[in-house]
Amino acid sequence: MQTVDDILKIKKVKSTAIRTVVLTHLLKQEKAQSLKDIENALIYTDRSSIFRTLKTFEENKVIHSIEDGSGMTKYAVCAEGCNCAPEDLHYHFYCTSCDKTFCLFDVPIPKIQLPENFKLQQANMVAKGLCGHCNK
Amino acid sequence: MQTVDDILKIKKVKSTAIRTVVLTHLLKQEKAQSLKDIENALIYTDRSSIFRTLKTFEENKVIHSIEDGSGMTKYAVCAEGCNCAPEDLHYHFYCTSCDKTFCLFDVPIPKIQLPENFKLQQANMVAKGLCGHCNK
DNA sequence: CTTAGGGTGCAACTCGATTGCAAAGTTTAC
DNA sequence: GTAAACTTTGCAATCGAGTTGCACCCTAAG
Fold first, then answer.
1. Lowest mean pLDDT among A30-34, A105-109, B50-54
2. What is the CATH number of the domain that holds B80?
């Protein structure tokens, strides 16, 4: 199993205290986290440092960001081997009740037939509704 | 063909000057419009009135909103008979070059196999890339 | 040790979204 | 027709996520 430092090394991101803490936290989550979630979860709090850490991670494909329509960008660790290319996409599910966003790795995204000449670069597929926990 | 007032009547939204102007404008567009787009396009400008008009339209299923990841919510007129239910969904395509959002009415959205107990209410499917015009 | 450069903390700012409130317009009851 | 009740509108102010400027710090190279 990869350690946090392994991941950073592989993705060529210098390991620092904040980065380790943030990545460790993200790895523990089953749901995508917003900047605020992270800020609240870690006793350490400096928005901008966490923000820049997330940007760095994103640029280096350590994590990917999700616009789930909640108004806050959420972040989740990329699966091993993910290049954040269209082929690596997966659906996200946003629960309108508990305000959590899940990565649905197991649900394949079909090829989208785009109009002529359109070029797909990436996609943001978010289904909304009630998660298993809230749908009772 | 439906007039603006017909649409408002069908959707049970009282017709007012602003509403007529905003809806007329939206009907003329081939791309989804942001609040700012509308503000700029109409000589008349009061952000909050347009904003509230859009909210009213959305609540009454006259238009639907799209989070295309550009940071601004975009709005487009619902197709006739649309109830904004999962069955009425369509993909959106956001062009990263010209910053425009298109509704891809012709591309069907396959049924998404959600995890057990999850309940789909709506979805926001945005593909990003280059539109036919920018991909040259 | 000294310097260069990236990383960090703090504070300030941007900008889309949203709200409070009073004025204007509309509808309803009498 | 008129007054009361409600809705819509315009303006100004606020909110909050995201972002940036800048000074300080820490590390690695010379």
1. A105-109
2. 1.10.10.10
Which residues are CB-neighbours of B72 under 8 A, at least 6 positions away?
Answer: B34, B35, B36
Note whether A131 contacts B118, CB cutoff 8 Å. yes
A85 contact partners, CB below 8 Å, separation of at least 6: A122
User: What's the domain range around A78?
Assistant: 4-129
| A82 Cβ contact list (under 8 Å, min separation 6) | A61, A64, A88
Answer whether residue A134 is part of any domain. Answer: no
Contact B92, B126 (CB under 8 A): yes
d(CA A109, CA A75): 20
**Count of the separate structural domains present in chain B:** 1
Phi, psi of A120 (to 5 degrees): -80, 130
Q: Which amino acid, A119?
A: K
**Does B71 map to a domain?**
yes
Q: Which of B31, B96, B118 to mutate to test the interface with A (most CBs of A within 10 A)?
A: B118
Residues with Cβ within 8 Å of residue A60, at least 6 apart in sequence: A11, A12, A13
**pTM greater than 0.90 (yes/no):** no
Question: What is the rounded distance in angstroms from the CA atom of residue B67 to the CA atom of residue B30?
Answer: 17
Distance between CA atoms of A90 and B102, rounded to whole angstroms?
21
Asked if residue B43 belongs to a domain, the reply is yes
Residues 14-73 on B with a CB inside 8 Å of A are 67, 69
Structure tokens at B128: 């990003």
Tell which strand D nucleotides have any atom below 7 Å from a protein Cβ: 7-13, 17-21
pLDDT per residue as tens digits for the range A35-54: 999 999 987 778 999 999 99
